[in-house]
Amino acid sequence: MRPPHMPVIRGRSSARKTIYICGQPRFVSVFICLAVSLVLWFSSCGLLWVLYALLAGILAIVLHASLRTPNLKARLNTFREEFRAVWRNYSEL
């Protein structure tokens, strides 16, 4: 459907043109689609699964942050230096 009639002004209009879907402004159809999807999501109990997944993700992040070893790069460098020292001792034999 065509948007309501607007007067013709010479040159480009500075205002953005409104997009119409079935004769209604775009935000009305977006709001209707959003409301329908939220009702279907809530009625199908999909909301609970999303909340469970979000909770599991946050729990995994907290667990990882609390169990990770601090200063891993320094520990790896120390291991490398120890390995080189042992390798030098073997090569001298």
Highlighted features:
4% strand; mainly alpha; 93 residues
Write a brief caption for the model.
By secondary structure, the chain is mainly α. The protein is built from 3 helices and 2 strands.
Q: Oligomer, anyone? A: single chain
List the secondary-structure elements in sequence, H or E.
EEHHH
> What is the count of DSSP helices, taking H or I runs of 4+ residues?
3
Structural class: mainly alpha
Overall form = elongated
- Which spans of ≥5 residues are poorly predicted at pLDDT below 50? none
Strand order of the largest sheet: 1-2
What integer is the average pLDDT?
A: 81
What is the topological layout?
Blueprint: E1 20-21, E2 24-25, H1 26-43, H2 46-67, H3 72-92
Antiparallel strand pairs: 1-2
Describe this structure in words.
The protein has 93 residues and is mainly alpha-helical. The chain has three helices and two strands. It has a two-stranded antiparallel sheet with strand order 1-2. The radius of gyration is 31 Å and the shape is elongated. The model has no long low-confidence stretch (mean pLDDT 81).
